Each structure stands twice: as C-alpha cells, then as structure tokens.
Amino acid sequence: MPLDLKKAHREFYMATNQPMIVTVPAVHYAVVRGVGESSLKNSFFKQAVMILYAVGRTLKMSYRTAHQIDGFVPYVLPPLERFWYKSQEGRSDAAGTGMLYWTLASRLPDFVTRADFDWAVQHTTEQRDMDCAYARFVTMEEGLCVQCLHIGSYAERARTIERMHHFLGANGYAFDLTEQRQHHEIYLSDARKIPPDRLRTLLRQPIRMRQKEELYEEVVCGGIRI
C-alpha cells in the first residue's frame, strides 16, 4: 500500500473541530512563494499550483526513470498547504488588509533530498516544457502551535480562528505570528469537487506561553478566568 503522509503523521493532519496544541518538527517542503492574492484568480498563484503538482508527480513517478531515489517507496501526493503573513502587524486572523506574502507548499517524504528535488525540477521543465524555476526545496520547523479543523468556506475561517483564540486564552497561551512563524492552512478537500460549506481545512498557528504580566492584565481587565 502506498505511503500516505497524512496517515503516517496523523497528529498533524487528522485534527478535529476542537483546538489542540501540537509541536511540529522540521518538515521538508516543495514551495513556491509569491505576493498578493493567493487564489486561482491570481495567475501566478495558479501557476504555482501547477508547478507543485507537476514537480510532485515527477518525484512520485521517479522510479520509472533513470533517477533512482535512495529509500524510495510509492506514496500518495499530499494535499497542498499554504503559509502566509500580512505586512500589517498585529493581525491574528484571516481577514483585514495589508500586503499578503504567501508560500504555497507540498510536503515531501523524508527520503526526498535536495538533490532529488533539483533533478525533479529540471526533469519536469524539460519534459513538460514548463518553467519550474520558482520551485524551492525548504525545511520548516513550526514548533509549538495550535491547530483546529475548519469545516466550511474559506471566507468563514475567522470564526474557527476566534475559537482557537479563546482556547489559547483559557490555557495560558497566545498567538505568536511573525514573518518567520506564519499562519498555516492545509487543504484536505478538493474545492473543485466539494461544496463550500463542506470544505475541510486544517488551520494552524504558532503560539507561545503567556507571560505572567499578560495573564494579570486580563484578570484585572475582566478578561478570561484563570
């Protein structure tokens, strides 16, 4: 049976609609980065989707080529993921204005090395007459995070993030969003086939323990009970 990264790393993909805290280790990704709207209405974002799928398929089918990956086992292409942050500081939700910097990503199996990835980019470019030079091999370690399954349209993500916010407040944590530690979404449903109200998206955000002063201020101001 092909390796399914979602099942092999169940704790990071099989979340429920109740917020939970996880510590995410270093993970290898194929990524394309961009600025501006991150939807298929943006031609470059659409191109990024095509590049990641094409390079991913090349790696998946590499056993049929002269390039043999050490430790290779057949695997299922994982769902697309997206990291992003806005230039406007202090945002902890999925709404608002500000320049959007996004990273579209596809998780790679641990046996895929940078050299294997570079081969796949070159091979895909040559075989499919597609410029894949925007694709990069990166390693990201998210660390301490809160995650929750959002069921519904992308436009309604804020209500799930608000629930995550209340969960953190009640447990002594706070969001820790920066340019390096970004909002993260994993698209578990195919939006081309699933109605908006049934879409399943895993939302993940970096967090930190609250300082004693922050907890004290919330109690004084009539905030959460601790």
From TrEMBL:
InterPro entries: GyrI-like, Reg_factor_effector_dom_sf. Residues 19-207 form the GyrI-like small molecule binding domain. SUPFAM superfamilies: Probable bacterial effector-binding domain (SSF55136). This is Uncharacterized conserved protein. It comes from Ruminococcus champanellensis (strain DSM 18848 / JCM 17042 / KCTC 15320 / 18P13).
